[in-house]
Predict the structure.
Amino acid sequence: MGQKIERDLQRFRKIVRGKVKSDLSKYISRGEMIGKKGNDLVSIPLPSIEIPQFRYGQKNSGGVGVGEGQVGQPLTPAQGEGEPQAGDQPGGHILEVELTMEELAAILGEELALPRIQPRGKKNVVAEKDKYTSIRRVGPESLRHFKRTYRRALKRQIASGTYVPENPKIIPIREDKQYRSWKVVPKPDAAATIIYMMDVSGSMTDEQKEIVRIESFWIDTWIKAHYKAVDRVYIIHDAVAHEVDEHTFYHTRESGGTKISSAYELANRIIDQHFPPSDWNVYAFHFSDGDNWGDDVPKCMELLSKTLLPKLNLFGYGQVESPYGSGEFYDHVTELVEDHENIVVSKVPDRESILGSIKEFLSTGR
């Protein structure tokens, strides 16, 4: 019974996984999963999956094709006349299922055909792990291999003629016992940090910030699936940059101008002070509407090409369209792409473009 229940559960999980995968673009563009996340789980509404159940009809209600009626008569209840009124019957229910963040990352990777991230080799903290790979004849009883011990005892008793099929008793002796053996293997535990930077000047609207919030959630989900530990840093900027917490990052709006270099300088200081590239895999993502003070562009390009990019696994620049931003900064960053393989640029004009933008950012495997 227990095995059957487990098989049914696994089958249901496959159905859920397939449904989530088929509707992934909808979940991403609407941001339905964000805000329903615990430490390790995310709750997903699936209105089109019904739980199988028994339903009992009315007694003596007739069978198939039994009863009065005319050819072509609708089977739905007749609609009454008069003004519509509130109903008194229960409606359908939306099933909410839970997926782990690892399962969610796997679905994202399968749907977008994302390559697995390869951490930079020198940035891994190596730990030791015991791996059971062989069998030996001595060891603690807690590691005794039951099947192998039973098999050896059975063979011995059959060979010696002491095995009685009518009264099958298998009693292992010392020579029959087999124990699991292990060896110590190095296990890399890579650590990573993600630095999010966003323009919060007056030209960035609430809709642009919501797009950034949705995209950041999925970037987080994918990168976390590849590292033992992930730290996050949030930087907002207009003409001046500040390090803030996550809530402030998504809910702050300033009225000043825009000076992107202030964010890059602050990010560089934070990396040097807290996340040296010799110990960390560092990712940076900058979201802006592309508006920047003209004289600041050369400084930004120099900071990126000579200071930040050599320290980063990946730098992603996402430009969210705004009715107030010029959008010119995108072209300047694009000029660096040919000479630097760890930089990705993406335009996100609306929510429907989020899925494609995520694939652009994460398809490098860095």
